[in-house]
Each structure stands twice: as structure tokens, then as C-alpha cells.
């Protein structure tokens, strides 16, 4: 049996080192912006996820606060109080221990790092978040007032409390802030 080999043409040649380096440089020029765009996209995705988690943490704490009595002097079963108390924790309550809180303004000054649930247990996967709460009395202008959309902070008791929940997280400077006005009203 006779084996035949194709003859290599004399003008056929291999790839030179210069051609290889040039091809590699062109590939890198094309791939580098793609890698950068992919990295920026992943970074934006992480930020978007953290922002959504911060919004969720702010909403959960706001709902937890709204479930409490309006004031320490609010009658059992609900209804309006005629003698609102000072903002802050009252007798029998411990700062930072939400299980002892029974009314909205007990949360004033609360700082959670990491955030905790209603039972004061750390919420999993939130160690890089911090939550702050501020509660203050406010006045709400009447509907016919020129400043109908403004909430004005006041020193003394009113029938309205502004609850501000702020959530921050590591690596980002823009916090999530959720503000809610809760009114002292009678149940009908």
C-alpha cells in the first residue's frame, strides 16, 4: 500500500509573531470595553438589589411601627387620646429593645445595625444595612390653606406624628427615606 502525502506549497507559510501580537491586540481592544460594560452591569445589578432590599427594610419597619398604639395614653382597643405624651420611650420600656415598645413614639431614636425584626432578632443577610427612626409631632395644614402639602414640625403635642425611617448600607451614600404621618383619630 502506497501512502501519498499532499505536498505543501512552497508559498504557504505559518503565522509570524508580529501577526499573532497584532491579532491579540485587536482582540483585547474589542474585549476590554465588553468586560468593563459587563462589570458595570453587574455592579449596577448589585446596587439595584441593595436599593430594593433597603426599601423593603424601610417599609417593614414602618408597618411594624404603625401597628403600635398611637400614644402611651391611647385607650386599650384604640381610639383618640386627649392627653398625648412626650415623644420617646416611657416607663417599662428599654431603648433598643423593640419587644418592650407599645406605642409609635417609642421608636424615636432607634438605630439598628444590623436590622432586627419585631421580636428583636437580627434579619438574615442584612448585616451591611443600618436603620434609623425619628418620630416628631407635626401640624397638618387645613385643606383650604395655601401650604396644603407641607408638614410642619412642632415642639408640643398635636394629633399627628411624623415617622421617618432611614435605611443606609455600606458603599452607598444615598439613603432610602420613608416618611409617614400617623393621626390620632377615633375608631367609629
Question: What does this 3D model show about the protein?
Answer:
The protein has one helix spanning 17-66; strands at 111-112, 129-139, 152-153, 160-169, 176-183. Strands 1, 2, 3, 4 and 5 form a five-stranded antiparallel beta sheet that branches. By secondary structure, it is α+β, with helices and mostly antiparallel strands. Strand 4 (160-169) and strand 5 form a beta hairpin. The longest helix is centred in the N-terminal third of the chain and has 50 residues, at 17-66. The protein has one domain. The chain contains one helix and five strands. The mean pLDDT is 83.
Summarize the structure.
Helix content is 27%, strand content 18%. The chain is of the alpha+beta class and 188 residues long. The mean pLDDT is 83.
Provide tags for this entry.
188 residues, alpha+beta, 5-stranded antiparallel beta sheet, 1 helix, elongated
| Radius of gyration, in angstroms, nearest whole number | 31 Å
Number of domains: 1
Helix/strand class: alpha+beta
Give the percentage of residues in beta strands: 15-25%
In DSSP terms (H or I, runs of 4 or more residues), the helix count works out at: 1
Q: What does the largest sheet look like?
A: 5 strands, antiparallel
Which whole number gives the mean pLDDT?
Answer: 83
Amount of helix:
25-40%
Spatial shape: elongated
Beta-strand segment tally? 5
Amino acid at each position: 500500500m502506497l501512502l501519498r502525502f499532499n505536498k505543501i506549497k512552497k508559498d504557504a507559510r505559518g503565522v509570524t509573531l508580529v501577526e499573532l501580537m497584532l491579532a491579540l491586540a485587536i482582540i483585547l481592544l474589542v474585549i476590554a470595553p465588553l468586560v468593563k460594560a459587563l462589570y458595570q452591569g453587574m455592579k449596577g445589578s448589585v446596587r439595584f438589589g441593595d436599593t430594593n432590599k433597603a426599601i423593603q427594610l424601610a417599609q417593614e419597619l414602618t408597618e411594624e411601627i404603625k401597628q403600635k398604639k398611637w400614644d402611651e395614653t391611647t385607650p386599650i382597643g384604640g381610639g383618640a387620646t386627649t392627653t398625648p405624651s412626650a415623644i420617646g420611650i416611657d416607663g417599662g420600656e428599654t431603648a433598643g429593645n423593640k419587644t418592650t415598645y407599645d406605642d409609635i413614639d417609642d421608636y424615636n431614636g432607634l438605630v439598628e445595625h444590623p436590622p432586627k425584626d419585631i421580636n428583636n432578632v437580627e434579619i438574615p443577610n442584612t448585616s451591611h444595612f443600618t436603620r434609623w427612626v425619628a418620630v416628631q409631632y407635626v401640624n397638618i395644614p387645613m385643606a383650604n390653606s395655601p401650604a396644603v402639602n407641607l408638614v410642619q414640625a412642632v415642639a408640643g403635642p398635636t394629633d399627628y406624628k411624623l415617622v421617618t425611617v432611614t435605611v443606609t448600607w455600606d458603599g452607598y451614600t444615598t439613603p432610602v427615606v420613608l416618611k409617614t404621618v400617623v393621626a390620632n383619630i377615633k375608631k367609629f
